[in-house]
Each structure stands twice: as C-alpha cells, then as structure tokens.
Amino acid sequence: MSPTAGQPADQSDDTDPTVMATMLTSHRRGVHSARHALELADPLSESVGESWSRAQMIEDGLPIPRLQCEYQCGTKKYRADAGWADRLVGEFDGKSKYGRLRKPGESIEDAVIREKLREDELRALGLMVLRWTWAVLERRGLADLLRPWLVRFGLMLAA
Q1: Integer angstrom CA distances of residue 125 from 50, 129, 139, 153
Q2: Distance between CA 108 and CA 127 in Å, rounded?
Q3: What are the tens digits of pLDDT across the range 64-86?
Q4: Rounded to two decimals, what is the model's pTM?
C-alpha cells in the first residue's frame, strides 16, 4: 500500500491507529482486549521486548516511563529505552543488540564493552541504569526488578 497524505512513508495503512480502531468496532471475541492494547500502545516502543516490558509495567501498576529518552554525556548523546524522572534508566537487552545490530566489523565483545562504557557515562550523570532480558519478562520478574528502585527514588510508594 502506498502512504496516504499526512502518513509517514514507512507506515502502512494497516498500522495506522485510526484504521486499527475502525477495524476493532465489531463484537467478536478478543476485540475488547485488542482495543485495550491499542489504547495503551506507544509508537516509541521500538521492539517487541520494549512493548512487552511496558505492558508488564502497566499490568503491575508501575509508573510508566518516558520512552527513548536522550541524555547528553559530554560530546555524546545517548538514547535509553525508558526513563523515569531523569533518575532511573531502563534498558531491555535483546540478543539483537549484540548480534545483528552490532556496528560493522564490531565483535560481540566490542559491543558489550561499548554498552558498558555507555552505561558508565549515563551513571556519571547520576542515573541508575537497570537492564533486563527476555528471561526476566518470561518469568514476569520486571516489577520485582524495578519496584525497589522506583520506591528508592520516590517515584512510587512502597507496597
């Protein structure tokens, strides 16, 4: 399909939220859940892992972070998957970050060291950086990882 006026060239009609909402007007089984998911969707979520992370935060009543936050570290600008009040940064680490998304000629070890140095620079700004993987999401452990830090930084009340 070609893009319509006012629609980004890389977004097809079937991913337009308005079109999807129109598609979800029936009373078929599962439509209510799909409507609810659409209401909570955020186009800044860049991967399935980031979306699933956000869904778990919502389900567990955690504060919802800003997505794709940028931080200036000297001459470098870094983007983080999630950020809460410029105090806590969250990073979903899927395997692609150290696989197909590596820079040309970069080894896995180089990518890990680059990420470690990036994390050190973010911490030097006073940010706490938390990372999680698919395994954390699969066992529904994200709230247990995030909650103590959100409480510590006064971003939510202790349960």
Answers
A1: 23, 11, 31, 15
A2: 25
A3: 999 999 999 999 999 999 999 99
A4: 0.72
